[in-house]
Write a structure and sequence with these properties.
alpha+beta, 385 residues, three-stranded mixed sheet
Length: 385
Amino acid sequence: MPKADYYEVLGVARTATEDEIKKAYRKIAFEQHPDRNPGSKDAEGRFKQATEAYEVLRDKDKRARYDQFGHAGVGGAAGGAAGSYDFSGFDLADALRAFMREFGQGGGGGGGFEDLFMGGGGRGRELRGDDLRVRLVLTLEEVATGVEKRVRVKHLRACATCSGKGGSGEQVCSQCQGRGQVRRVQQSVFGQFVNIAACPRCEGAGRTFKDTCKTCGGDGRVHETETVTVHVPPGVAEGNFIPLRGLGDAGPRGGAAGDLLVLIEEKEHEVFDRDGDDLHVDVPVSYPTAALGGKVEVTLLDGSKAAVSVPSGTPTGHVVRLRGKGLPSLRSSRGDLLARIVVWVPERLGGAEKKLLEELQKSDALKPPKPGRSVADRVRDAFRG
């Protein structure tokens, strides 16, 4: 099913300014936020859709790519290869993080943020754990076949002693009255400013304990090093990332865990160069083969062999395309192998070979043409004329 136009999602014109786009998103996001529409899948879907649209249109480069190419311009493979941006895995957690970045800690301007999260029942917010990043270096062979890797991750996990709660005898925080945040009013020459910050006593949880857990000191988390298995599909590229949900840092006092983002890096190959899903390789051929034509054998990335036809009179730089011999794509297609013919010149010659070449050198048919101006240059001069 095709995606809706991002401008239509936010209800703005394609010429809308950055401020107009932000105001339109703010209105939709506050109306459709899950906290205001508990249990509504429709509201959650509209909230995610509006946030995805905003994440593209708020960024000058992404917006330019979207204006030029549509959704294809912001739909790179598995998290965005260089120059592309992938929203295929954009979920509610991503949308909430983006929303909090814009309107958290009073960023929404006015009382809307406080009304949304703190009004009515007056409860503290669960704090989500941090996302973590690890780099995973792959060879070109591993990219071609896909691979399973194991990486060691040092992260915060829920304390086993208190089951991540931080203690026992839970009670409402006396400083913030369970709201998880405190207001500080400051006077200046410009007037009165209200700053909303996490409560220092309960660290934003809205509750404290009579008996604090001695293992984690009340935080509900402890440091652990864990070995994580990463399943890498064939065809990933430098700059892609694989999100492992819930394997980042655990949230304090039972909060949801962040994600572990595995960032893909590629090791340079000794023989092949990569260009998207295509591979490039130089194929050296002898002068007789280039002049007379023939076939040469090329070793592919997987170690198998393929024959490359060399037409007679082939110059250095001629490219032969072998269809489907490149890398697999994340979109179920496969790239090509582009074999560039390079006429090989030996550095040393034996006596017999040298004598044969000296005889050939006397042939007028083997002498190169004299340097001259190209036909294209002469046509340009005629028009300037």
